[in-house]
Amino acid sequence: MSAPADTGRPAPEPGPGPGSGSAVGPGADPGPVAAPPAVPHPTDRRARATRTAGTLLFGLAALWALNTVLRTAFSGRWWLWNGIDLAPPLAYLAVPLALLVPAALFRRLRRSTLLLAALSLLLGAGQAGVHPGALLRDRAPVPADALRVVTWNTFFWHQDGDPERFYSYLRRYDADVYLLQEYQNARGDRPVPIDDLTRIRAAFPGYRISAEGAFLTLSRHPVTLTRALRPAGLPAPATDWPDYWDIRILRTDISVGGRTLSLYNTHLPDLLNVDRNPLTPSYYHEVGSHAHRRLLHLRALRADLDANDHPVVLGGDLNTLPGSEDLRWFRGLRDTAESGTDLYPATFPAGRAALWRLDWTFASPDIDIHRQSLDNPPAGLSTHRLIELRLSLPPQPSTRADGGRPQPADPKVQP
After folding, report:
1. How many CA atoms lie within 13 A of 60 on its CB side?
2. Tell me, what DSSP letter sits at residue 62?
3. Would you say residue 34 has pLDDT above 80?
4. Which of 91, 96, 135, 360 could form a disulfide with 120 if both were Cys (CB 3.0 to 4.6 A apart)?
5. For position 4, what pLDDT does the model report?
6. Residue 27: how many CA atoms within 13 Å on its side-chain side?
7. If we measure between CA atoms, which residue out of 188, 178, 270 comes closest to residue 220?
8. Which residue ranges does the record annotate as region Disordered (predicted)?
């Protein structure tokens, strides 16, 4: 048998497949091979997370510093801020302190974050309403003849509650003076007047009663003057009880040991209405209306204080926050919390979680404040804490040769 003829064409290379003999043998070049995906080193992941956290911390510090600067500039000066300033005053101390520690640990933007936190702390410490001196103040004995003054926002009197429980709570203080706000009830969101004088006289026999609008002042001592301050130019009342809107300060003068003491029972209009939607125009319309009313009432109060030469005790629900420029209206008077033992004398809401100081008491500098204390009322009575003062009046000033009394050494400040 003869051999196949040579056609002159190369024989085809065997293709892949079983039995084709195409397996790569040892030492053969397998060709290019794709590299496996790179796996980030754990150190790189931690560095990226640290940078992100540092950036977020810087952003938080910047936002809080901006909020603090705006509050310093506008609180008590611009009505719109009343509807925005919702942070508890203590936050202006707590937040910067909480930012300082992690800011020192992150390398990214460390200096900028520390500077912003320090700025917030510098501006916010005076707005936090903290009284460090309370930690060092001891409870010295109170003179036996010291006056006991109580001020309290009763939150709709004893509506929906037990009257006897309400009056028993008040009577246990055995106060010489009671400055009580919200002597009223409510129907829905409308305030309505009440007449509970018969029960009040039975609960407090021998006390003199001064009642105007939603205010009630009780005094063991003779009353020489009762006057509700009604500013001129107030807007029309928002409901059918004008005195609720038009009377926000009740002045009552009493005679104590031959000395006249002027009491200012005060409840300023709210800063905002928490029941309104802040995303609606009606919310800000109401904020502006309340701010206008506040201004007129504060001007009337300041004018009355400036014309009054008697020692003064002023107390009530001022709806004013620490650090607010609204406190300028009370210059010349002393914040009695300076004589208290509460580091953070917040009054709202009542209970251990009190975060906002809305209720205040002030007194003339020559009145000796022995003690201020706060009390949480029994559950269901009120959303405000009660303030109790123990104080002594200054001695009666001597008369001049011409029969007149000496003028005060320090003129009262007119804002």
Report:
1. 15
2. H
3. no
4. 96
5. 45
6. 0
7. 178
8. 1-47, 394-415
pLDDT tens digits, one per residue of 62-119: 999 999 999 999 999 999 999 999 899 999 999 999 999 888 887 768 899 999 999 9
From its phi and psi, is residue 213 left (phi > 0), alpha (psi between -120 and 50) or beta?
left
- Tokens 């609720």 correspond to 244
Q: Residue 112 is encoded by which pair of tokens?
A: 């900028």
Distance CA 343, CA 113 (A): 29
Q: Among residues 151, 145, 160, which one has the least CA distance to residue 375?
A: 151
With beta carbons less than 8 A apart as the criterion, state whether 247 and 215 touch: yes
Beta strand residue intervals within 200-283, DSSP E: 208-212, 215-219, 223-228, 249-256, 259-267
Query: Could you say which DSSP state residue 257 is in?
Result: T
Q: Which two tokens stand for residue 83?
A: 């509807």
Distance CA 337, CA 342 (A): 8
Count, residues in the chain: 415
Specify the pLDDT at position 45: 73
Query: What domains are defined for the chain?
Result: 45-127 (no CATH), 152-392 (3.60.10.10)
> Which tokens hold the place of 319?
């709806």
Distance CA 63, CA 59 (A): 6
Tokens 């008369």 correspond to what residue?
399
Per residue in 141-179, pLDDT (tens digit) is 999 999 999 999 999 999 999 999 999 999 999 999 999
Cβ-proximal residues to 271 (8 Å cutoff; 6+ apart), any chain: 82, 83, 85, 287, 290, 291, 319, 321
Residues 6+ apart with CB under 8 A from 118: 96, 100
Per-residue pLDDT tens over the stretch 243-299: 999 999 999 999 999 999 999 999 999 999 888 899 999 999 999 999 999 999 999
Q: Rounded to whole angstroms, what are the CA distances from 242 to 192, 237, 329?
A: 10, 5, 25
Work out whether the CA dihedral 105, 107, 108, 109 comes out positive or negative.
Answer: positive
Tell me the β-bridge partners of 165: none
* Both structure tokens of 81: 């801020």
With contact defined as beta carbons under 8 Å apart, do 184 and 244 qualify? yes
For 125-164, the DSSP string reads GGGS---GGGGT---PPPPTT-EEEEEEE-SSTTTTS-HH
| pTM, two decimal places | 0.84
What does DSSP assign to residue 176?
S
**In whole angstroms, what is the distance from residue 328 CA to residue 343 CA?**
22
Rounded to whole angstroms, the Cα distance separating 305 from 237 reads 25
